[in-house]
Design goal:
Length: 290
Amino acid sequence: MRNIGCPICGKDEGRTIYPQTLTPDAKPMAAGPMHDPERVHYRIRECSGCRLRYSSPIFDEAGVRDLYADAAHTNVRSGEEGNVKRTFELYYELIRPHLARRDRMLDIGCDTGTLLDVARRDGFREVFGIEPNPVAAAQAAAVPGSSISRAFYEATVYPPEHFDLITLIHVVDHLVDVNEFLARVRGHLRRGGAVLAVVHNVESLLERLLGERFPPYNVYHHYFFSKRTLRLLFERAGFDVAVLRASRWSERPTIATRPDFFSTRPRCCLRLSAASGTEPSGPWGPTRFP
Ligand SMILES: [Zn+2]
């Protein structure tokens, strides 16, 4: 186990909100006999500086990776394809007004390729997906014009300033070195490019109701964002926040800002969802999981 800190403030200072429910001898295996990783959580801390909630200590690098090693199914359950498609269309609508060009898009953690298909139908010439899960990757590869990589994002070799859009659907809260990851994303964006990110909303009504039993409090998640902390993270990483929305489960109003017209910083659209939604099925970084 290793301690991690707040990626916004850069330190591990805060109070413990919930002690860990993971047993000390638990093994980080999705199918392991010790526990169900979706039903246990690490110790959950709240940063004294920015109030970001985060897990610490967490499994070591190999352990975090092992959580995903047995993923042999996709995140789209049979019969739910229509709902998933509508959800992704709604996500895409957020970023659509902020797209300068439609040459290439990259979906990190593309699962079965639903969002790639939505982007392609909106006019993207080439759509790229990263998906380590072989079952999901095979389905994504069937999307016309798609190129799917099963390598980890940090091991990929895309040219700099290559994409007009990069999407991170339920990815950011699973990362460990999130700043390093976002710096890489920024480097892969063209000037005028945009990022769409979706994470769980720790300030949702569901969290208020369920407290420690809020489903995203599990060992797959290292960070639990509010609107404020998600904005801070992306602004600190060099993005202009174009739109910031929370799901109807959130009691807080919607904030929408337009970036400075003359800014050279890439734009991002951020959305926080309640507990439901798709979850990544694989790790997103080779050395800095997931
Ligand atoms: Zn902080």
